[in-house]
Amino acid sequence: MFSTNAILLHCAYGCLLGAALVQRTPLRRLLIALSAGFFAFRAVASPMDIITLVWAAVIIVTCIVLVARPFARDAAVVFTPEETELRAAIFDALPASEARHLIAQGWWVNGAAGETLTRQGKPIESLVFLASGSAQVLVNDRQVGTCDSGDLIGEATALTGTDATATVILAEPSRLWCIKSTILRDYIGANPDIGSALERSFRIALRAKLVASNQAIARSRNGN
């Protein structure tokens, strides 16, 4: 039978091994923290010996540094007001440092009225965040909705590479953040955790658009 101390050590080593194997950052941090906890219990358990105590202290400090380092890095990140708005709309689930790095993959641009952002039946070249201004949404050359400040444009197909389901044209001068669809897909392929978070954000954005569209249709019918 294993002693309590042996079980604590096995659990600690198992957590460290798991942290080395898993890909999801939150789970990795949790396993490192658990490993530090098991080592801490083993270090103070009876009987104690100086060698075990020293090694446990070294491992605990190392685990604390590994867990705390991302939080310290995130605390040093600074966003501009428009970047803060962008992060809240799309990247809220990402740590600050990861959101900063992803935002840097795109660019900010001023769009003119009449500029086409997506064209129905054509691949979406860029995912667009409408920071200010508005746009018309057309299907078969008929306006079916609008996009306003804070909306995403192209999120339905940017990750899949399929053709746009609607044409989107700016209705007035607008401020936009854009990222090439190919760059976004490659970035997500190299960072699976970010991909999962973005997909959730895109689903929420699509759901909000559907609700707004249904409400607009209902108001139109009631008006008639």
Protein model, in words:
The chain has 224 residues and is an alpha+beta fold. 55% of the residues lie in helices and 18% in strands. It has seven helices and eight strands. A four-stranded antiparallel β-sheet has the order 1-8-3-6. It has a four-stranded antiparallel β-sheet with strand order 2-7-4-5, with no helix packed on it. Helix 1 packs antiparallel against helix 2. The longest helix has 32 residues. The chain is elongated, with a radius of gyration of 25 Å. The model has no long low-confidence stretch (mean pLDDT 79).
User: How are helices and strands ordered from N to C?
Assistant: HHHHHEEEEEEEEHH
Average the pLDDT over all residues and give the rounded result.
79
Question: Major sheet: size, sense and barrel closure?
Answer: 4 strands, antiparallel
Between the first and last Cα atoms, what is the distance in angstroms?
80 Å
By DSSP, the count of extended strands is 8
> What fraction of residues sit in β-strands?
15-25%
Strands side by side in the biggest sheet: 1-8-3-6
SS element count, helices: 7
Shape: elongated
Q: Structural class of the helix and strand makeup?
A: alpha+beta
Low-confidence stretches: none
Question: What's the gyration radius in Å?
Answer: 25 Å
Helix content: 40-55%
Q: Can you tag this structure with a few keywords?
A:
single chain; 224 residues; alpha+beta; four-stranded antiparallel beta sheet; 7 helices; 18% strand; elongated
